[in-house]
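Field log, afternoon session.

UNIT: design team B
ACTIVITY: writing a sequence onto a fixed backbone
BACKBONE:
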């Protein structure tokens, strides 16, 4: 199973360092066969020693250059970062990332051999229209994306379940993951209010290969409780 923690705009360099040290201690005490990923804010990226994979939540698709406020490949290479989240609904929505922007990021980081966790998800009004509409919406988020890329993980995150405390139901996750697996044969994570109290139900679902966790990953105890469940 894959357990990925997306800190979003939470934690500092100091608290991220402490978090990773605490996580290391827990893993050392009780080694896990699961794959763990942490996505701290860019300001907290550093040379951490850990068996968890450290990735970034975003970067600009250029090696370097005149892109004020952005970071590119050169800055990631300094910290040997080779994993990136692309297509998160918060970037699509708040940062106005169109499918064109998302796919150009995808192609750039693919060309540079990054492991990509590619996020897709539908808003509530689409979910309310039924499964066919959901799949039409999600399929459009694969436009311009090489779904056969060898270093690709998909994260299905229904927007209405993100940060709301209301996870998708087992039936919703199960049917959507089943349909997605027919389109893309890659590890498939679920994200959206995954937490210690529902993690066992979620990872027991056929077609779920792991979780991408926001709020419940912010505390190392809660995140580790999920991994250890
Ligand atoms: P929450 O776990 O806070 O709902 O966030 C999910 C998410 O967006 C992870 O990328």
């Amino acid at each position: 199973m894959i357990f990925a923690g997306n800190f979003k705009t939470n934690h500092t360099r100091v608290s991220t360092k402490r978090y990773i040290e605490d996580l290391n201690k827990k893993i050392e005490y009780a080694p896990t066969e699961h794959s763990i990923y942490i996505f701290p804010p860019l300001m907290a990226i550093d040379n951490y020693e850990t068996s968890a994979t450290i990735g970034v939540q975003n970067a600009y698709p250029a090696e370097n250059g005149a892109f004020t406020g952005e970071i590119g490949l050169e800055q990631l290479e300094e910290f040997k970062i080779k994993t990136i989240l692309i297509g998160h609904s918060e970037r699509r929505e708040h940062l106005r990332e169109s499918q064109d922007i998302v796919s150009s990021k995808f192609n750039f980081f693919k060309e540079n051999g990054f492991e990509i966790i590619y996020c897709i998800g539908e808003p509530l009004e689409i979910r309310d229209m039924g499964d066919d509409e959901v799949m039409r919406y999600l399929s459009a988020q694969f436009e311009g994306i090489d779904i056969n890329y060898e270093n690709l993980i998909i994260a299905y995150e229904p927007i209405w379940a993100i940060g709301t405390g209301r996870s998708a139901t087992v039936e919703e996750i199960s049917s959507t993951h089943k349909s997605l697996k027919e389109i893309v044969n890659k590890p498939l994570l679920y994200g959206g209010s995954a937490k210690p109290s529902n993690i066992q139900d979620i990872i027991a679902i056929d077609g779920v290969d792991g979780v991408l966790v926001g709020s419940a990953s912010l505390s190392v105890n809660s995140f580790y409780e999920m991994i250890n469940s």
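LOG NOTE: The mean pLDDT is 97.
NEXT ACTIVITY: expression trials, pending approval
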